[in-house]
Amino acid sequence: MKMNNVDKISKLQQTAIVIFGVTGDLTKRKLIPAIYELYLAGRIPKELYLIGFARRSWTDDHLREVFIDAVKTYSDKDYQETAVNELFKNTTYIESTFEKQAGYDQINKLINEKKIKNVLFYLATPPDSYDDIIQSLGNHNNNHVAPGWTRIVIEKPYGSDLESAKKLESLVHTVFEENQIYRIDHYLGKETVQNILVLRFANGIFEPLWNRRYVDHVQITVAETVGVGTRAGYYESAGVIRDMFQNHLMQLLALTAMEAPVAFSADCVRDEKVKVLRALKPYSPEEVLENTFRAQYGSGYVNHERVKAYKDEDGVDPLSVTETFLAAKLYVENWRWSGVPFYLRSGKRLPKRMTEIAIHYKQVPLPLFNWQNTAGDAPNVLVLRLQPDEGITLTFGAKMPGPVNQIAPVKMDFDYETSFHSKAPEAYVRLIQDALYGDATLFTRSDEVIAQWAFTDRIFKGWEISKRKYLPVYEAGTWGPLGADQFIQGNNRWWRNPEN
Question: What is the DSSP string of 67-118?
Fold first, then answer.
């Protein structure tokens, strides 16, 4: 029997969230506004303990002020002074390095003194600190001190390749059980991502058409207008493939291609996603070069502002071959999707910030209408918009009114905000709530992470053999270089223009 929200909240009394790296941008921009929204909605208990853990010389009062400022600056909800004071009354700051014993002893002392029953550890730190924190939590018995449950949320990137991911998996499982580990990918918290499953499996008109008989190909696009900014140190070693492809794009592919789960529960959903990842066609090094395309942004204009080239960014190697744009063609070798290409692309300094999944249906077998046709040979495209305006659009051909026989493309559009008269909640609102409630459906499981890295490692090996000394350059503010168009046009297909 499932618990309702009242039952779930009652079981969260005397719960603490311990945020490692509490002084960072993630905490103030995402975590605290999300916790505030959950509080206003009555989905977390009144007595919530917020414990910050970081190196800076802050005090409890200063941390509380930072939290209040985060709500004022980054929350979409109205500022309510009474609610803020109530929410942050149990705020404690622990000044410590991530290796220092005293800091972890203070956590245990607080849990015992405040009679805290449940603890959620949240790693909002750079990934190179994960090992130290996880090891220290185990060494100081922080994983067993609370009498109720203890969980840990780990942000991406989860490793930098297959070997490092396996090492991190081995370490975290020496301290926590799999059901205590919540590997976060914030894309999975977006309403439209969750709507993929509802659209397919709760509507009889879509599921019968969601296969190789009717689908020509699928395009998944994650576009950013920003450059690397102050993250050049990280990005130089990561590139698009680690920053976006290995996690976000592959998760979106898995959700789009998966079979219906036995039930909408954590393990059932993740079982089906893993099957998709394991069914991806494994590429040889030579096939990697045929099925991926890399590029770097040059200087150009984004939102009418002149921006510099990637190699001119502070901290970037002038001889860098790190990709800021990646297009890839993948095949899911199973009964449903055999022969259907999935085109994935992501890049920085593109014209528009957006994420979408576009299902392109096959053209009709016989053109019956010898009319002027501006809808194209295959006008049927189902587009799931994940950001910035969450919604779903279906495009099809229709006769234009009037005496001239002409077919034009038209759209049926669902917009989340218009239909439900409210904005889609921030992804972190749902994910923090689920971590507190113990629902891991929207978090990645151990075998998912390994399957994603196993496929991505094959791409690394193909690129290593090619030993490229330079990459094609695209003008900032465009959708990539000519080679990106040729990459898909070689299969007589074209990238969808998200501007249309």
Answer: HHHHHHHH-SSPP-HHHHHHHTTTEEEEE--SS-HHHHHHHHHHHHHTT--E
